[in-house]
Design brief:
With 63 residues, this protein is mainly β. It is built from one helix and three strands.
Length: 63
């Protein structure tokens, strides 16, 4: 088993409510491999009118 630490950038659309954010993040990260752990390290507000935010996520993934 190989473990990799990755920085992942994800757009958080305003249509995803806070209580559904965890499921949204996990669904997107599991596309990369078996998810061991993850954390949000930075949230950046977007300047567009759609209210999208950028998340920087640090994750450990097993391949």
């Amino acid at each position: 088993m190989k473990l990799s630490s990755v920085d992942y950038y994800l757009d958080w659309p305003s249509s995803i409510k806070l209580k559904n954010l965890r499921k949204f993040i996990i669904t997107n990260l599991e596309k990369k491999g078996d998810l061991i752990r993850w954390s949000i390290v930075h949230i950046q507000n977007s300047i567009d009118s759609f209210g999208t935010k950028k998340l920087k996520i640090k994750a450990v993934i097993a391949n």
